Amino acid sequence: MGFVAQACYPHPSQADGEEFCIFLNLDFNDGRGLSILIQPSALPELVWHHAVLDSRRRVFSAPDRKTNPWKAGDIRGKNRGSVTATRKLGISDLVFYAHPLLIVTGEHSWPEEIWGEVLQNMVDVLPYESRQRVSKMYGLGETTSEWFRSVFDLSGFDLGIGPDDFGATVIIPEAAAFRHNCRPNVVWHMDAQTLEFHMYPLREISKGEELTISYISVVAEWEERQNVLKEFYNLSCTCAQCRLPPPERERADNQIRRILDIHDVLANWNTGSNASIEMAEELITLHKLQKLDQDLPEAYCFAAREYNAVGNVRKARQYASLALNKAIYIHGNGWRMAQDAKKLESFPENHWSHQRRLQV
């Protein structure tokens, strides 16, 4: 398999007594290496399910900062450095591509007294250059153990992997350099099958402009966003959206509430629903007004369903196509509404929503 066990640790939640072990593949990703924390019984199935982990396959990604269309500032004290574009970027331009350095499987909480040690050991077995990349990541804490726990909590990306789609957190040092913005200009997605991490612009980006991502769901009111960011990232957001004057902030919050209300109405397919194509068009307009670009595919798909539901297959196809074209950069191959949108684009008459709103 190419993975060699390094150290094992008992977890108090495991009734069967099976330990979690660090498995290392030094050759993975052209020598960057990959360190996985997983139960030994689960590793063979994980490798079988993700062919990219098979040692007979050569995996390469280009993490060299010189090849990326951006540069990262230094991390100073407890502040992340900013990432800025080194050239103009369009929506289809790849901002960054990589595979993880660390994969932590399971959704169990580890005791603090051992968790930092486990994470440090996962990093210590990696090649020197990979260890250096981790050492430059943003983290908090007075001790080494606290710092490693902080890096994992602040910079880990969550996804489902394996045949059962079980929870995992991955660490990709370069991606962790991007700061949060409630109206980001970059979006990321990870292919749960190939474990490829991609970042793309959400809109055109000028040379010298800061590149930002969102750490949370931004379809939320100002107070909720602030509370979530403070609780999970110890962050008080000062992005342009959060600095809006009170009247504009209230207007933005009202539009967010309207978006959520429309979602609920359009998701109701019971007889007597108030859903309409006008409401679907309003949803799209509100997303654009609020610059919620990363959620536009869902809004387009809602509109495709509504037009199809009243028999307008031309508009249904149009919006389904818009949804798919936008989603490929935002969600990759893992968009949950992809099959829905594909059917609406190709065979709307055979989709379950066809003329559904016309039924009495």
Automatic annotation (TrEMBL):
What is the scientific name of the source organism?
A: Cronartium quercuum f. sp. fusiforme G11
Q: Which residues form the SET domain?
A: 83-215
Name of the protein in question: SET domain-containing protein
